[in-house]
Amino acid sequence: MTHRLVALIVASFLIFASLPSLGQGLRPSPAITTVPATRAQAAAQRYADFIVAVVNSEPITNNEVQREVQRLEQQLTQQRRPLPDHKEVTRQVLDNLINQKVQLQSASETGIKIDEASVDQAVQNIARQNQMEVAELQRRIAQDGIALGQFRAQLREQLMLTRLRERELESRVKISDLDVDQYLRDQQSNNDPANTEINLAHILVSVPDSATAEQIAVLQAKAQRALDRARSGEDFAALVSEFSDASERSNGGQIGLRTADRYPPLFMEATQRLEVGAISALVRSGAGFHVLKVLEKKNAGLPPMTVTQSRARHILLRVTPQLSESAARDKLVEFKRRILAGQGDFAALARDNSQDGSAAQGGDLGWASPGMFVPEFEDVMSRLAPGQISDPLVSRFGVHLIQLMERRNAALSEREQREAVRSMLREKKLDESYVTWAQELRGRAYIEMRDPPQ
Questions:
Q1: Burial 348-379 (b: 16+ CB within 10 A, else e)
Q2: What CA–CA distance (Å, rounded) separates 414 from 132?
Q3: Range with the poorest average pLDDT among 99-108, 408-417, 437-446
Q4: Coil, helix or strand for 168?
Q5: What backbone phi and psi angles, to 5 degrees, belong to 403?
Q6: pLDDT by residue (tens digit) across 343-366?
Q7: What is the CA radius of gyration of the chain?
Q8: Per-residue model confidence (pLDDT) at position 332
Q9: How confident is the model at residue 432 (pLDDT cuts 50, 70, 90)?
Q10: pLDDT of residue 217
Q11: Coil, strand or helix at 328
Q12: Which site in 101, 187, 238, 360 is 20 to 30 Å from 15, CA atoms measured?
């Protein structure tokens, strides 16, 4: 889901130090100030903190806005991207902070709570995704002048927002078979080259600019031999190694998956009617003679037809008034300890304890393609090695313990392709629903704009 906690979002919080707080006093409203300020007083006021907006009685201060603006501008500079207009960035940052404040208040009012174990898990995920240990992550946070408590508080807020958005948006999005059918028809009738991705491999027999007609004929004959052998079924990568002068020689001649409009028109004319695996006729360009093989063709608007599937099993404990999230987590930690110590069997524990429909199968979820599980579950599962057991994780369904059993590369069946399209459409509608929901929630809030940020 687009609005879930993403490590890269939080990474910017790690890399760039927060601006120091420049003052704790609130500036009086200009309407109350009757004595003209001196230049020194005006300068002091500019650097004092003050309220820029009030959201249901909670303030947003100038320092909060400027910290986020500074962080965003530093991030863009690091990425060597052009900086937008400062005033526009400030306006957008304030707008986003208001939306976040409204949503956090809604999460608190509706009883969403994040325990310390969930924050610990989020810290571990961020460390793992940034390829470092938790201790190194904490050291980096301290080096950047960010208090660990402040960092954990931001993580807690992000987790609260994630839970709220998932709960509120899931029921709004339904994708019917008619939606899938219409999307597939639209994609099949879309002939825009920018919508088609192709991976070609080629053999280049280069022709020097100064080559004579006799030399060109010899080189053309060499290219023709490569073509004949490729069409007879010889390994194309081996022929590339033997014949090709191209820079892609070390990669089996592969140019890489790219949209059709990023290939030379000569290549597209020679291959547009070919099926995957077919070899083109000889192509002459300014560089020499080419033999082209179509390795892959795909519609950029459709999910891949070959995917890495995972087969996992899990134990699910649902959170109830009788079983808190923390207690469910502790119970699963004990299950994991027993399994690793050889004192328990995962399948048996799943059959006896799991509150999911898969319990009768020992928690076995069968083969699953990407997108079939909720993101928080799939994110953890995707990082497991075969045989490995996760730490307990929380999803909208409860608390899970996952064991990855095996992985495989598989071509999707027609039904699986449709489900992949359904998942893609669902993600798109979730994004659209989020915008509408956020506007509705904000529309019900009391928002008072004070002095503009400086």
A1: ebbbebbebebbeebbbbebbbebbbbbbbbb
A2: 41
A3: 408-417
A4: helix
A5: -125, 125
A6: 999 999 999 999 999 999 999 999
A7: 29
A8: 96
A9: confident
A10: 94
A11: helix
A12: 101
Q: What is the pLDDT of residues 98-117, one digit of tens each?
A: 999 999 999 999 999 888 88
Strand extents, DSSP E, 288-351: 288-299, 306-317
Using the Cα atoms of residue 228, residue 231, residue 235 and residue 239 in order, give the sign of their dihedral.
Answer: positive
Class of residue 191 by CB neighbours under 10 A (exposed 0-12, middle 13-18, buried 19+) = exposed
Q: How far is CA 202 from CA 15, 238, 251, 269, 391, in A?
A: 43, 12, 10, 15, 47
As a whole number of angstroms, the distance between CA 180 and CA 187 comes to 11
Structure tokens that stand for 28 in this block: 């009086």
CB within 8 Å of 386: residues ≥ 6 apart: 404, 405, 406, 407
Shortest CA distance to 137 belongs to which of 150, 147, 124, 149? 124
Domains and CATH numbers, the chain: 7-172 (1.10.4030.10), 193-299 (3.10.50.40), 304-414 (3.10.50.40)
Q: Tell me how far apart the alpha carbons of residues 207 and 288 are, in angstroms, rounded to a whole number.
A: 5
Alpha-carbon distance of 207 to 341, in angstroms, equals 67
Q: In whole angstroms, what is the distance from residue 231 CA to residue 221 CA?
A: 15
Q: How far is CA 60 from the centre of its chain?
A: 29
Structural contact between residues 105 and 58, judged by C-beta atoms closer than 8 angstroms: yes
Res. 339: pLDDT tops 90: yes
Strands (E), 147-219: 196-206
390 close to 380: Cβ distance less than 8 angstroms: yes
Inter-CA distances, 58 with 83, 101, 157, 269, Å: 31, 8, 15, 63
Arithmetic mean of pLDDT over the chain: 82
36-60 mean pLDDT: 67
* Amino acid at residue number 143: Q
Nearest Cα neighbor of 180 from 425, 433, 413, 427 is 425
C-alpha angle 421/358/393, rounded to 5°? Answer: 80
Stated pTM of the model: 0.52
CA pair distance 100, 83, nearest whole angstrom: 24
CA dist., res. 214 & res. 194, Å (int): 40
**In what helix (H) or strand (E) does residue 349 lie, and over which residues does it extend?**
helix 346-353
**Mean pLDDT to the nearest integer, 393-416:** 87
Burial of 115 (0-12, 13-18, 19+ CB in 10 A): middle
105, two tokens: 């208040």
pLDDT value at residue 226: 94
- Rounded to 10 degrees, what is the CA torsion of 131, 133, 138, 140? -40
